[in-house]
Amino acid sequence: MRALTPSLDEPTAAPAGESAFTLRRAGPEGAAVSPLIFASPHSGRVYPNDMMEAARLDAHAIRRSEDVLVDELIASATARGAAVISAAYARAYIDLNREPFELDQGMFADELPAFARARTARVAAGLGAIARVVSEGQEIYRRKLTFAEAKGRIEAAHRPYHAALEGLVEAARAAHGFAILIDWHSMPSAAARSGGRDSRSCDMVLGDRFGAACAAALPNRAERELERLGYRVARNAPYAGGYTTEHYGRPQRRVHALQIEINRALYLDETTLEPTDGFERLRTDLDGFTAALAAADWSALRPG
């Protein structure tokens, strides 16, 4: 197993030429050993200086919006044949699970172009492509941003990440006739209490856009394997899938996308953001889960 990435006391400033993502392949570049693609868009730990200089919150408060260490939880998937792509830049800097120009006019000093004036529920909640708030509704910025700053973040991080992800999807579909994209996230334990089938918290939430993003065989198999490992699983509540699941999930084009949310209480101290003793068990279980998906018969997803 790879060593744990230490949690950060301060956000990491972006060095010159910082890549927008980390990509780990199971085979040579351009090859798709497996139809499986794992993505972690919210585990990035790079907080560029321009963001921190405009922020009113301290480093620790901003980091509470991260899917802390999710990239480490799924890192071994390459040994099972999957490609793994993880964001480098922090979710609070630019959210890769949003439309690139899903922006809140109220955050900007200048007038946004018409195409960038989003009126979605996510923007209303302060969670557009550039978030206004982190956990518990805390405002991130002490000043208005500019559209040029937003566009710079999109060009530096959002576009290259999704260009790479699109390439992985197309390579898998070309090699296997279909692609399976799993978009990995973590959720606060408080949110997990609203997704269970009873009064207990759920451990995982599978989001398939209520069946629109993938064939039923994928969430059915995922749920069965996770329950076999002892996890309580919910479907589409409180999370049905975001931009990635909606944008890439095209079963009619043989691209099947599923979002998986992990209850942070399974592996993380949500106050200190340090991994708990449950981290290693969860990482081992997710490796077994990946092995089961890799070994599954997905012939029903192939073209006839």
Explained architecture:
- The chain is an alpha/beta fold and 304 residues long.
- It has one domain (21-295): Zn-dependent exopeptidases (Aminopeptidase, 3-Layer(aba) Sandwich).
- The protein has 9 helices and 7 strands; from the N terminus they run E-E-H-H-H-E-H-H-E-H-E-H-E-H-E-H.
- It has helices at 49-54, 59-63, 70-73, 121-124, 147-176, 189-192, 217-228, 243-248, 278-295, and strands at residues 21-24, 36-40, 83-87, 179-187, 204-207, 233-235, 255-263.
- The chain has a 7-stranded mixed sheet, with helices on both faces.
- Helix 7 links the parallel strand 5 (204-207) and strand 6 (233-235).
- It is globular and about 55 Å long.
- The model is unreliable at 1-17 (pLDDT under 50).
Attribute tags:
29% helix; disordered N terminus; alpha/beta; Aminopeptidase; seven-stranded mixed beta sheet; 304 residues
Summarize the structure.
The protein has 9 helices and 7 strands; from the N terminus they run E-E-H-H-H-E-H-H-E-H-E-H-E-H-E-H. It has 304 residues and is α/β, with parallel strands linked by helices. The protein has a 7-stranded mixed β-sheet, with helices on both faces.
Blueprint of the fold:
Blueprint: E1 21-24, E2 36-40, H1 49-54, H2 59-63, H3 70-73, E3 83-87, H4 121-124, H5 147-176, E4 179-187, H6 189-192, E5 204-207, H7 217-228, E6 233-235, H8 243-248, E7 255-263, H9 278-295
Parallel strand pairs: 2-3, 2-4, 4-7, 5-6
Antiparallel strand pairs: 1-3, 5-7
